[in-house]
Amino acid sequence: MLSFGQPAYRARQVYGWLYRHLARDFAEMSDLPEALRRTLAREATLGAGGVLAESVAADGLTRKLLIRLADGEAIETVLMCYPEEGGDEPRRSVCVSSQVGCPVGCAFCATGRSGLVRQLSAGEIVGQVLQFARELQAQGNERPVTNVVFMGQGEPLLNWPAVQKAVETLNSPQGFNLGARHVTISTAGVVPGIEDLAGWPLQVGLAVSLHAPDDALRNQLVPLNRRYPIEALLRACRSYFASTGRRVTFEYALIEGLNDETRQARLLADRLAGLTCHVNLIPLNATPDCALRPSSRGRVLAFQQQLLEIGVPCTVRAARGADIDAACGQLRRRVAQRES
Length: 340
Known about the structure:
Layout: H1 9-19, H2 34-43, E1 50-56, E2 62-68, E3 74-82, E4 91-95, E5 99-101, E6 116-119, H3 122-138, E7 147-150, H4 160-171, E8 183-187, H5 191-198, E9 205-209, H6 215-221, H7 230-244, E10 248-254, H8 262-272, E11 277-283, H9 297-310, E12 314-316, H10 330-339
Parallel strand pairs: 4-7, 7-8, 8-9, 9-10, 10-11, 11-12
Antiparallel strand pairs: 1-2, 2-3, 3-4, 5-6
Helix pairs in contact: 3-4, 5-7, 8-9
């Protein structure tokens, strides 16, 4: 504001319009001088970018957007709505991307096949949340977004400065006011990033994409494991719990005939012994150009039963948006192939 020749208090006004009132246009900022509104419209933007494509699940509860950024690159963001259950407030979670593409290259991930294109800015990350928040507010939802998960394109802990700034912006009591405990950061296992997270004052949730109980198999599925093997990863997770008191969630995508045997469940339980955690079992969301296939329902339930009998808390995650290219990177790849 000072660079525009305005008094400093104008910054607080704009901040409130952006993150508390969820303004869709600078013209809505009625307590700003008209000349300043024109300047802002010329010099700044209120969104992450234009919507390039949209997919909506048959039940209407999951929506994926492909957003074109200012430089022409595209990212995916997803809204997942969960109806009210047992008197709890309905959840409306936004899954955000943190990078254009991804450098990790997991064997089953469509995004990883394109590699890393560039980092997202904090504004581009927050803009994904605001995109849905404005729509939900217009539908009469007093608290439009209840949760944010960093589970979209990219590895959040390899873009930590921007992710950190985005979370702080969403958490700010003067603005969006989303509680830190309603934010979850998912990682493929960037150990230094988990250690940073353990010492961060904002106690966000931690989810780790594990997918294998031993290093040999995880090296194949998650190449990052060659740099940060399972034992080092679990040490960092224990440090996170010791510092925050928050249990760690482990994501485990079940792949037919590869990581879904009951002996592997027992090995996984041994690995996690003594760590306060929860395991999310996820039947693989298969992509057309990947030979890996999801485990059958029977193998999923047998794997879950083995973990439960040993005492590892676990659930089978309900499939969301399988009919809308919901797996990370699928919509972006489909649109790119269509345009080429």
